[in-house]
Each structure stands twice: as C-alpha cells, then as structure tokens.
Amino acid sequence: MSFEQLGLAPALLQAVQEKGYSEPSPIQAQAIPAVLSGRDVMAAAQTGTGKTAGFTLPLLQRLHESAPVHPHRLRALVLTPTRELAAQVAESVDTYGTHLPLKSTVVFGGVKINPQIAKLRRGVDILVATPGRLLDLHGQGEIDFSELEILVLDEADRMLDMGFIHDIRRILKLLPDQRQNLMFSATFANEIRSLTASILSNPVEVEVNPANATADTVEQWVYPVDKKRKGALLRELVIDHNWQQVLVFTRTKHGANRLAQQLDKAGLEAAAIHGNKSQGARTRALEGFKAGKVRVLVATDIAARGLDIAQLPQVVNFDLPNVAEDYVHRIGRTGRAGATGKAFSLVSADESKQLNGIQQLIQRHITREYVDGFEPEHDVPENAPLRRAHKPSKHAGKAKSGGQRQGNSGGNGNRNEGSRPPRRRRRSRAGSPSSSNGNRA
What we know:
By secondary structure, the protein is α/β, with parallel strands linked by helices.
C-alpha cells in the first residue's frame, strides 16, 4: 500500500515524499483511513511504529478540508505526557503541514510562559500541549476551546501512570461536546478502556502489535552483577565496545544524576535527564546526545518517554524497572525503523523478582552472559518457568506486527560497531533454551 492509496491530499503527499517515505507503516495504514472517516479512534501502538504520523497526517487533512468559521482559531488539540514528546509531535505537525495554510504551536511547562502566550495570541489552528501548562494558560484566559473539532490523547497510558487523569478530566469539561476523539496508547489495559468509555463514542479500534511484545530487531541480554559493581561494569562495556551512543535507564532521578557524574569523572561524556531537570538542561542534553557530544545519556522512564533518536544502537537497563511493561518501552528505544538494536540489563540478586516479572510478561527467557571479573558474589536465581498469568487480549495481533516507525531507515549499522556482547564472557546454562536463534527477542 502507498500513501496515495490512503486518500491523502496532494499537499500532504508532497510533504511525505520530501521526508523520503513511500509506504505507510501498519499503524498508519489502519489509523489514517479511520481518522479520515471522522470516527473516534482507539489505537494501540508502541513508540517507534510511526503512530505520530498516523494521527498527524489525517488530522491536518480534516482541518484543511473543512472551512473554519474563523481562521487560526484553535481547532485541534494534542495532549502529551512529557515535554519531549510534545516537542516531537509539534515537529511532526510542522513537517507534514508545511504546504498547508494551518498554524500550530506547542506549549509545555519548565520554560517561560510569556513567549507561548504571544504565539497563542497570533492565532493557531493546532495546539500541542502538556496538561499542566494547558490548564495554566486556560486559567489566564489565553485559550478558547469553543471551536475545537479534534482532540488527540497521545500515550494515554503514560499520562495515567504520571497521574494526569484529574487534569485530563478537567480539560475534557472545558471542551465542546461535539468533537472527534483520537486516543493512542501502548496497550489496551483495563485502565485505558475505562478512560476510553468516558471519552470515545463507538470508536474504531486499531492494534498492530501483540500486547507487550518486544521487537524482533532487538537482541537482549542479562548480565548478573553485584549491585555495588554495576557502575564499573557499565564503564567496562562502554569502553570495551567503544560505544559512542548509549541510552542508560535508572530507576530514580538521584540515581541518574549520580551515575552520570561517575561516568563523567571516568572520562566518558555523560548527561542525565529526568523530571527535576529544567527544560533547557534536558534539551541541551538530548541535543548533545544526538550530535555525538554526549556519549552516555542517563534517563528515568518518564524523561525518556517520547525521545525520538534515530538508529540508537543500544540501551542499557542499569536498574530494572519496577513495572515490567516499562521494560518493553525502554528497549523499544532501539531496533527501530528496520535497524537492529541491543538491550543489556545489569541485574543484581535483589532484582530477581523484577527479572522474573519481565520474562513472564514477554514470554521468553533472556539470555544471561557473565563478564570475566564481574561474576556476582550473590547470583541471580535461575529462571522461573514461563507461565501465562492470563489469556492474551482478544485484540492482540489484529494486524501483523513489525511495523516500523517512519524515520531514517536502512539501519546502516555503523554505529552498532562493537555492540555485541563482550568477548570475555561465558554463557550461563540459564540462557534461552527455546529460541532457535539464540538471544534474539
């Protein structure tokens, strides 16, 4: 299928072509016609599947096709959980709407509000926002929702995780009753379905990935190591493999700061991003990472959500997440757009419960590797048998998985140089016994 077959307007097709895309991803192939039909849409798609273009393109077309009562009055609102994701969505709107006479802007906290007010006063058709800053601006009388036609909730599951449900409900009360609603989430969890019931009307459901699946393009390893030696092992991995770009996840903000400082002192350019960092500091860290000036970016789950880093070769779980689903989101940062990726987890004995929860969720054992000189004094217990806690979602697998984000494709592999497991290692008997291709997941 081509973008032309989806019924997009010539101006949008030109923008898509200028970006170098010719075929829609699976989520785009299903979501774009559904949105263009005017129906409410409930879509489940992991980050990296092209979901942003899946709602941005048809949203732009619907606004362009319907003549506004007043030009440049707010007609579409996109809510996102984080500043980084808001900026990413706003960039997508600008890119695909470049040949249309529509105006857009983005607002989020952590930066001065006056420049955002100035842009709103000049008029916008599309607003991308985080919930808190949106309510602040509305409270100051700077936003009028009376002509709103389309509402998009992007990464709805993360908004619930971050405690935005009350802000979302406050915002919904401010919006016109007659509008099109689009909800995008990584899963159709019960909490999401409960939220959906109160917002969407007879929605079209779109899902392209089995629930909690990990990408086939990401290879995964577990490195058992004592907690106090995790930092030294991470430095060993970065130096031994000459990793020039690695995203590292920690469980806490304090842990992210401490690890980044330790790596910097060891001569490895590192920066931390988390919720306590100013927007300016987060932007500088991310730009430095993308430009190759920052070698190791240390992040918490919330700060990393929505990061768009093309061809990221590897991610490291310095700490395993407390919530197993977050592991899927973390390693989804790599192995995108057809490229291969590596995911390494440094696991101490006290994290065996989290490791077991992750393996039960993804329904496979992750191969263990032991690095010489870092064998743990207290090893991680043997893998528990895999048991399904519940039946798979009836919506899982509606379309073939493997849809990739419409981004830089090709996976040229030059950044993957040296990102294989260490040469100095021995394989545990607790590796993946059921996988014919070893440690691919």
